[in-house]
Amino acid sequence: MSFISDFKEFAFKGNLIDMAVGLVMGTAVAAMVKSFIDHIIMPLVASIVKVGDMSGWTIPIGTEIEKEVDGVTKMVQAEIGVGSFIQEVINFSILAFVIFIALKVASRWMKKAEEETPPSDEVVLLTEIRDSLAKR
After folding, report:
1. Which of 22, 49, 76, 116 has fewest C-beta within 10 Å?
2. Angle at 35 between CA 29 and CA 37, to 5 degrees
3. What is the pTM assigned to this prediction?
4. Is 126 domain-assigned?
5. Which long-range CB contacts under 8 A does 17-25 form with residues at least 24 apart?
6. Is residue 25 part of a domain?
7. Per-residue confidence in pLDDT tens, the chain, 136 aa
8. Could you tell me the residue range of the domain that residue 52 belongs to?
């Protein structure tokens, strides 16, 4: 086989196309979940914690130092981004839950599809042979 025909065989296998569709769908679901978290969940959490913006919630550590930015000297201090970390933990938790639910639904659909397909002629024939041998 030539390189081109090998590549065609690889690129157009059902599994590869299924994976590509799954990747596109996963990206779309991730964007939707991120929007849900950023615009609905995080404002609720921020209002409960009494912080205007969760990503801006930081804990200063250490002492202030002078730092020159664009020719202007400013006093800056190292900070721990507690709000950003909490937001990422919530993002991960909700996205993992959504993926878990999607996989449960998909596996349930696949089970139903397997149950609905009639057995092949070979399976029917082998079942008949087994049953006739069991009668003897």
Report:
1. 116
2. 100
3. 0.53
4. no
5. none
6. yes
7. 688 888 777 777 767 777 888 889 888 888 888 888 888 887 887 788 776 677 777 888 877 877 777 778 887 788 888 888 888 888 888 888 888 888 898 888 877 766 777 778 888 888 888 888 888 7
8. 3-96
